[in-house]
Structures
1.
Amino acid sequence: MSDKQELRIDTILSELKQPNIDWQHVLENVISVFDCTTGTIHFLDQETKLLQIQAHKGIPPFLIPKLSTIPIGKGMAGIAAERKEAVEMCNLQTDDSGVARPAAKETKVEGSIAVPMLLEGQLFGTLGVAKPVSYDFTEDERNNLLKIGEAMSKALLA
């Protein structure tokens, strides 16, 4: 990861320490840093144990109802939440593992990753980003996304 990307990640982490967080802005910054076009932030509703959409970008409007509430274990975000680890696809369009929901292919993205927002093992939600081309995220990128997810979790407790 370049020095410029590291600096931009540090900016996101600083933004997450502010008292009033603009989650849409955070998501747009994450999408930009990782050179993606699409992304979502879901927060875990601690009572219902369902992931609820908090911010999204690049999602076709007709898909918003399908991803506004996600059960743990369903789709990339739900599986990342269930496993408490990153779930990645080099090409969502050709994936036949069953991890991605059929509607996800309608986003037209290919390289995608969903990471859990964890703090000391507790799940607070998920962060997902995707590119319009086939792509394997690097270990550094996965670790940085997990670090951002941890900072997001801390921000929710503040």
2.
Amino acid sequence: MHAWLCTEPTGVEALAWTELPTPTPKPGEVLVEIRAASLNFPDLLMVQNKYQIKPPLPFVPGAEWAGVVQAVGDGVTHLRAGQSVACLSGTGGFATHVVAPAAHCMPLPEGFSHVDAAAFIMTYATSHHALVDRAQLRAGETVLVLGAAGGVGTAAIQIAKAMGARVIAAASSSDKCDLCLKIGADAVIDYSQEDLREALKALSGGNGPDVIYDPVGGELSEAAFRSIAWRGRYLVVGFAAGPIPALPFNLPLLKGASIVGVFWGEFAKREPQANAAMMEELALWYGQGRIKPVIDRTMPLSQLPAAFAHMASRSVMGKLVLVT
């Protein structure tokens, strides 16, 4: 097998395409031939030694992937050789083969493409957990999605619409706003050209959004929070912009609003049964055509450094997927 090996987390340039022995699955594990692996922002942070999870060196980056089971270890009964699966393993995805815990692998129903599956778990699980579980979103409410053209943003738009909400999508260019409208947003704000607070006031009749989904952080967060509706819920999803915002505590007081943390990974560990039920619902929605990953482009796995450069340019709309 071959893999992009990180021997020192000093950046993308330190990754090397390396031949390694093909591993044998241990009890409870499966060996999977990878067909597609998606690029996520944490993958970049991990090879730069900037992520909260720091795997022991050397490691193969690539948190999320899909492929075909080649062999199963002892005790694995729910998966078999030849079966297609998707997995969010944290590492190991930027390779031709990977060994992963069988319990972490999601069997793919008929018709679920490997490319879509590789771009599915992290974004849709995060957005479903945020909107359904943490925000308790109700039909008829208004949701503002910041960074709406990215992976989690596009998933949030689709999930909010599937739940009967009105969606205002905010993004950083007209092209990104056009994409958001195409996948179901009711209104858009190009915050590179428009004042976010004024646009929200106009689009919400002065009431503001009931739920704000924020995977971006940075300078937009306070402006967005100042626009939130009475009893609104502000979802802290991530900080793709870099800076972690600091909000004055009088703002949630004045609006009777809640600041709600979203950490899907910890939810999945602590509440596995609830997480499994959520993934079943998401797979059902995919089969019904209610949700579908937005794929910016596919690139050969051999072009991983170029894929990282494209992601770092912040021009990706939806997800970028590497294929073998």
3.
Amino acid sequence: MARKLPLLTALPSFEAAARLLSFSKAADELHVTHGAISRAIKNLEDQLGVQLFERGTRSVSLTAVGEPYARAVRETLEQLAAATAAATARYSSPTLNVSTSDGFAGRWLVPRLYRFHRAHGDIDVRVSTSGKLTNFLGDGIDVAIRYGGGNYPGLTAEFLTGEEVFPVCSPKLLEGPHPLRTPDDLKHHTLIHDSFPIDWARWLSSAGVEGVDPHGGIAFDSATFAMESAAQGEGVVLGRTMLVAADLAAGRLVRPFAHALKSPSSFYLVHPPAAIRQPKVRAFRDWLLAEVKQG
């Protein structure tokens, strides 16, 4: 029985326009004209006999039919791209492109990468910390390490580890005129903030601490900078298990209180399903799981 397939050459244009909600941005991404995008989508709509976009004067939006169709097309293109990469793996570049957050890269991954290079000297690792969501199809990313709930439609998400959140500081803050002994002692110290969803307001409330401004202190967008500020003795930051493990082991940071909050999110290794067929992806995945297990 013959398959009823859409106009395949139009699918990249449709996927980009649906993801960006802009024909112009889709044209820029695919290096074609706005007219080429518009014609491709119109031809696709004519073939399907449905309207995929609502077109406004300065904007476009997906219709009730177009939204689920866009998700299906995106997943199909991701799978096709991964399958193509897997089929040509032995002829492709030995470079493994990894996407993750700057905090995870700087505080956990990068200090351990030398061990991966020792075991797999033929694989060059490139780490991207752009902070944007990974588009495996367009960004050339092989695997991503993500912090979330594990729901990544159309992708394989392998659980790495959960996390707890707790205050950490320089050992020098355990001494002096106001040493940190109990959570109430935080009223004498500067709070350091980063962009993590569990903030000081939640932690202080859970610990029963009153009289401390949960919003005052020093703020950073980067977890790496926040942890470094704490290590220099500038205040107390909320640490996360994976990101402070090395500093706790080295004594650069200490954990003054036992109280911790369990994070609702966890770390996952995320990739298109077919990507695991590539030896470089499989090697990195096996190494990563072993490192996490080792602690």
4.
Amino acid sequence: MSEYRAERLAVLIKEELGNILQKDLKDPRIGFASITNVRVSRDIGHAKIYISVFGDKQQQTATMEGLESAKGYIRSELGKRIRMRYVPEISFVFDNSLEEGAKVLSLLNEIKKEGGED
């Protein structure tokens, strides 16, 4: 039962955090960031939020710093929007899986082009 509840909460956090990032956060350090995944512990005490950032290393670092500094605000907003008595502690984790996926697709397309020219 609690595993289902944790999964449901993860979906809600992902939706609401997306809205918060898009409309409410005004920190200039936060660039184009997307939430790739949210994992909530079974006891609903902790939530890991996986963030992918579009841009170079400097932009990625600045965005992660901006999110860390806004953690308290984000947590309080999540509490208001989801209406929970206890909001889990949140931590942000940089996720480069989209970047790695793009590299793999680029390599596959390159191989395909080279194979078609023979």
